[in-house]
Specification:
Layout: E1 6-9, H1 12-15, H2 18-31, E2 35-38, H3 47-57, E3 62-65, E4 68-69, H4 75-88, E5 93-98, H5 102-107, H6 115-127, E6 136-139, H7 143-152, E7 155-158, H8 163-173, E8 178-186, H9 191-205, H10 209-217, H11 231-237, E9 238-240, H12 243-256, E10 260-265, H13 274-285
Parallel strand pairs: 1-2, 1-10, 2-3, 3-5, 4-5, 5-6, 6-7, 7-8, 8-9, 8-10
Helix pairs in contact: 2-13, 3-4, 4-6, 8-12, 9-11, 12-13
């Protein structure tokens, strides 16, 4: 897999205007970052198409879906699509797969019951395609999915997690599998302003059972998850402050067992984080 140690994760890479996505991708590559991560959204670009656009816009940087929903295409299509991207673009693509969330699955007409069994069947279909399979990671938070990532993939991609979960995931995966962790950050030193920006992020994910349940498993109190999260919860999920504060959180994930950390820069106006990446890259790449 072409990931490196530090990457970026951004909605704009998948659902922003294509010129904005290309500019962000090229900027990250010029800065020396290792990978571009993007989600699957119902807006603008299908996941593998989004990957192709980013690969075509760049020359060396890795590109990873984070994640492609198993409900959006069948396993054979996903496997063949990932292989085609790697054949065309120098093996720079990593297929991140996930079961998504009940509301998103329902919007596609799917049935979210028994997601672990659905992922297992999906991997069976992928493995039925003749030839060498494409690199793949599974979106995994709970023990069962982490075990599946260990046994049936090259590792796991985790999202919306503190470093404590990274340690749990590393233990579950073992030493041989790749662990790629997303970390949201706000480059803002004022606590009130930083948490205001961060809560726009946390309130969305704390409404989804998968993320809430994962934090509860870590021993976080249910009361801390309401209203977009307590200050303590927001601070555990979103690193804010200056470059050194952000680097400290990334360093904590690496120390806990992450092989790769993809930084998601949150801004007050959802603009492309070109300036923030310019500030962060020297410090993060020195880790």
């Amino acid at each position: 897999m072409t990931l490196g140690r530090i990457g970026i994760w951004s909605f704009l890479l998948a659902r922003g205007p294509i010129d904005v996505a290309r500019e962000l991708a090229r900027h990250a590559e010029r800065l020396g970052l290792g990978a571009l991560w993007y989600p699957e959204t119902p807006v603008r670009r299908e996941s593998l198409t989004a990957g192709a656009a980013l690969l075509a816009a760049t020359e060396r940087i890795g590109v990873a879906s984070g994640i492609a929903s198993i409900w959006a295409r069948d396993g054979v299509a996903a496997e063949n699509g990932a292989r085609a991207l790697n054949e065309a673009w120098d093996a720079r693509f990593t297929l991140g797969l996930g079961v998504s969330h009940a509301p998103s699955v329902a919007s596609r007409g799917g049935d979210y019951r028994r997601p672990l069994s659905a992922m297992r069947a999906y991997l069976d279909a992928m493995d039925g395609v003749e030839g060498e399979r494409a690199p793949r990671l599974l979106a995994a938070l709970a023990p069962g999915m982490l075990e599946l990532a260990r046994d049936r993939a090259d590792g796991a991609h985790t999202y919306f997690v503190p470093p404590e979960h990274t340690a749990v995931a590393r233990e579950a995966l073992g030493a041989e599998r790749t662990l790629a962790v997303e970390q949201a950050v706000v480059l803002e030193a004022d606590p009130e302003r930083a948490r205001e920006i961060a809560r726009r992020h946390t309130v969305r994910y704390l409404s989804l059972p998968n993320y809430r349940n994962n934090l509860l498993r870590l021993g976080i109190e249910a009361a801390d998850l309401d209203g977009g999260g307590s200050d303590a919860l927001v601070d555990r999920i979103v690193a804010w402050g200056g470059e050194e504060a952000v680097a400290g959180r990334v360093r904590a994930h690496l120390a806990a067992g992450a092989d790769h950390v993809c930084v998601q820069v949150l801004t007050a106006d959802d603009r492309s984080p070109l300036a923030e990446l310019e500030r962060l890259a020297p410090t993060l790449l020195a880790l």
